[in-house]
Design a protein that fits this description.
The chain contains 2 helices and 4 strands, in the order ββαββα. By secondary structure, the chain is of the alpha+beta class.
Length: 91
């Protein structure tokens, strides 16, 4: 059984990805990506296990996507802006 997983997030609009982690518990990461998807953002995620073949996050490649460092932080800020705008629109 795997004890840790990488956290891979993809921006499907810009065709970019970033790898964070490794983490033993990926619930917060998965839930935040799900929230982004519900807000209308075109993102996806996966949590591949940490193995000997993927011991370094630089070895993780996603066909058709280019690496964008800091992607997760950028998407979190975009998601917060969407949520703030939706709250302002209600009032």
């Amino acid at each position: 059984m795997y004890t840790q997983s990488w956290q891979l997030i993809k921006d499907d609009t810009r065709r970019t990805f970033d790898v964070t982690g490794p983490e033993a518990n990926t619930n917060h990461f998965s839930n935040s990506v799900h929230g982004m998807q519900r807000a209308g953002m075109n993102v996806s995620c996966s949590t591949p296990p940490l193995t000997n073949q993927t011991i370094s996050k630089e070895k993780i490649k996603v066909p058709g996507y280019r690496h964008e460092p800091g992607l997760y932080d950028r998407l979190v800020k975009e998601h917060q802006a969407i949520l703030l705008k939706s709250i302002e629109d209600e009032y």
